């Protein structure tokens, strides 16, 4: 499991700073990185923790530097994820979308596979789906890595993440929803259908697919 933009800080493709920083003058959560990456790390780690507790063979990868200019360097997210996928594993990056009209919202941008993937389908059913060739085919999907957009980094979602009173509950709610979807995408013999009931902290409700149709795919 990967945190999107973990190796592209201070260069093209750094991710969004979020509405709080760009529009409302808030301080970045970590001055070394865009706020999107900060939250990508937080969600990634929460999902790994929840997933391992529930029996998933899931782990996180962190590149050795926040800036790696060559996207095909062996230590980048892309290279590590591509290698994992080539061995038959499932690799995906966590992202938050840009705020306002710059972003589209939550959804799964699937890896470009020759055959449908059950985990991709399950995550898309929970979060919504983007076209498989979104923006002509992004770097990660072209390397066999799916992208999960949690939602736009703005409004209630961003506020609940930034507030120390609601942060952990919000991260846990997101992690449960992702873990549920992964488990539901596993072979039926090894995993029953699960569905964590949403609670007050679940700030990313399931959405109808507003971006694609059968014609897009």
Structural class, from helix and strand content? alpha/beta
Provide the CATH architecture: 3-Layer(aba) Sandwich
Please write the CATH class name: Alpha Beta
Task: Indicate the low-confidence ranges by residue numbers.
Answer: 196-217
**Average pLDDT:** 87
What is the β-strand count? 4
Q: Tell me the count of domains.
A: 1
Task: Give the % helix.
Answer: 25-40%
Outline: globular
* Oligomeric form: single chain
- Topology as H/E string? EHHHEEHHEHH
Look up the CATH topology. Aminopeptidase
- Spatial strand sequence of the major β-sheet: 1-2-4-3
| Rg measurement, Å | 16 Å
- Share of residues in strands: 5-15%
- Number of DSSP helical runs: 7
Summarize the entry for a quick read.
The chain is of the alpha/beta class and 217 residues long.
Which terms summarize this structure?
217 residues; alpha/beta; Aminopeptidase; globular; disordered C terminus
Report on the architecture of this protein.
The chain is of the alpha/beta class and 217 residues long. Helices cover 35% and strands 8% of the residues. Helix 4 (118-127) packs across helix 7 (167-184). It is globular and about 45 Å long. The two termini are 25 Å apart. The model is unreliable at 196-217 (pLDDT under 50).
